[in-house]
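the two lines:
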Amino acid sequence: SQKIEQNSEALNIQEGKTATLTCNYTNYSPAYLQWYRQDPGRGPVFLLLIRENEKEKRKERLKVTFDTTLKQSLFHITASQPADSATYLCALNKAAGNKLTFGGGTRVLVKP
Amino acid sequence: EAGVVQSPRYKIIEKKQPVAFWCNPISGHNTLYWYLQNLGQGPELLIRYENEEAVDDSQLPKDRFSAERLKGVDSTLKIQPAELGDSAVYLCASSGGLADDTQYFGPGTRLTVL
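prediction for all of em together
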């Protein structure tokens, strides 16, 4: 069955450092991979989308890589700030239709 | 521009009671989704609408859950009767409908079944 794995342990990081999150998937051939941010009591908010034929995408302090051979995406937050503290979810989407399948999310805590 | 609106934000009911959640998507978005999110997990799709048609309801427990999207705008998700295991956050999202479209989520309804 399809499986999307994110590190369930919280990531504690010092302000100014780079946070790196991992999303691994099995039994899946996604056309698109998306990253969302979710704060407590709120719905997920879209951050970045990367297509299967793209290796890397950047947006301000965020960078996403997508390796379809390793079946893995890495999500980087550079120069992290306490305001970046949240849960980050990866989600996969096949080309046919637009059902998103989410991973369990990784909580990030940036300490000042 | 207003985002996805959901109500109520919180609901506490006793088991076997019915409950309904309402969602108003972003104006112009044809695709509407209902997701269920358990604590510490990612959202799981319950049903997806294209306009007023349910195009993917394979994960909806149809014995107790029902949904409708009359006129292709607002949507209602109902549970009858509710069970203890239904306690979760119910999220509504909408998108323009393309395969790589961003999905915009509402704040969710936190349901507690006692």
